[in-house]
Amino acid sequence: MTDSTLAGRDTAALDDPVGQALRGRHAHLARRLGRAATYLPGVATFASVSVGPDAAEWDDLAALLGPGELADMFSCPAVPPPDWEPVFTLEGRQMIWSGTARPGHLPAQAETGVVELGADRVAEMLGLVARTSPGPFWPRTHELGTYLGVQDDGVLVAMAGERLKPPGWTEISAVCTAPEARGRGHAARLVAALVARIVARGERPFLHVAEANTGAIALYERLGFTTRRKVTFRGFRTP
What we know:
It holds the Pfam family FR47. By secondary structure, this protein is of the alpha+beta class. The chain is about 25% helix and about 30% strand.
């Protein structure tokens, strides 16, 4: 796929990346009731409702999740009923790969030092996430897509992977490096490797990042990502 084709890829699916993924390539990992949807337990807490949901749709989502559970609405702007307790609000941005940079020139078969992480490495992945706090990651999150890592003497010290998959796009997420392994370019190498794999499939990479994480934003810009829009990440507790 050429750079011009990538650059022209329709971005409308990115306005509702959770819903688009749950209705499409992640349908096998979805629970749904009416127009409300969420991921299976242990995969992700992200939930989706339609544009302009009514009270019945919020009731369906509450029934899916159960009482007192987290409804991670991600970047969805819809406001739940007043008896849904706010849990968190975080300002961030959505970034898309420009298609004009060639980060790393890393074909999948020549990713020196990069290993694929599967179910047998979940305990290590969860341990790294606990130390670095890159964002939500659960025991089955690796089922959302490919996760890659870097090891130091057999110990996992950095990782990144694929998360939401709206049509034509794949999100890069869980980018993290252990404190003792930072400054060695691991994050850049892993993101570049994922970009190469995603583009080779004819898709376009995108990601989300907290607005306060200026170091990560600068890294992604160096790797060819540009800001598409500002977003607000929000979570609520069901009644």
